[in-house]
Write a structure and sequence with these properties.
Distance between the termini: 26 Å
Radius of gyration: 24 Å
Helix content: over 70%
Shape: elongated
Length: 299
Amino acid sequence: MTFGEKLKGLRKEKGYSQEELAGLLEVSRQAVSKWESDRGIPEIDKLLQISNMFGVTLDYLLKSEGPDENNKENGYYVSRETIDGFLSHKRRLAKNIAIGVGLVISSDIFGCFSGYMQLLRPLYWGTMAIGIAVLVWTFFQPRRYKEISSNTLLFDETVIKSFREESNRNRKRYVGMIVLGVIMFLFGSEFLYMVKDAVGSEVCNALDWLIDAASVMLLIIAGIAIHAENIITRNADYIAKKNSRGKFTWVYITLPATVLAVLIGIATNAWSPVFPVIFLFCVLLVTVCKLLIERKESK
């Protein structure tokens, strides 16, 4: 890889446009374009600024790799700063998805009080609409760090060793969140049934929806966090599985999962059977829109 290819890759990894990078380096956009097309090299102070900004060494930036080196070690170099940025991005994404799903589930709280249906109905639809809007807004955000989830990654040995130790510690916390979420989901209703006479059936039902929302939010946050860390710690296995599957394999999983969720909702009243269908519709709509946008940008 040349200096220009490395700079372009690092810029895209951070989600910067040429104009944004130029502003951070206090140069013109034309200068950045010239560097990325290998028609020039920055001055040493700018090279140091780029090195610090992206968490890479000057040796990595300036050392060109020949064909033999590329064949021997073909991959995408990732620094610790990049790993932290990727995980921070995934955590924000997980929180937004959890909030959206939590709001959609929590909207049924307002349907538990039969004596105030007319008054609470706007709150029911408003909460659901906000939840769906949060999900749609989240899925329409630009894909950042897509190079990490689509390439074989290269690390400094000390960086990946330190991160694996940290990931093992984090995993205990995430597993605890999953266990807590499952317990809340399975036994929350049983606990509320025992205090039903004390608080009343309507309050009990409302609390049941609140517990369901909280448990699902815990599962989403922990699940996405574990998946994100696995992309780093088990990168070779992740890329191999991803390459062996089609781009839209998730559709074949989502459809039967939606049917199962609807049946569970009908059988147990754990959630409204409409929710899984609405969620699937939103995901399909966002996917189609993103494909149309990508197709338009590629022309």
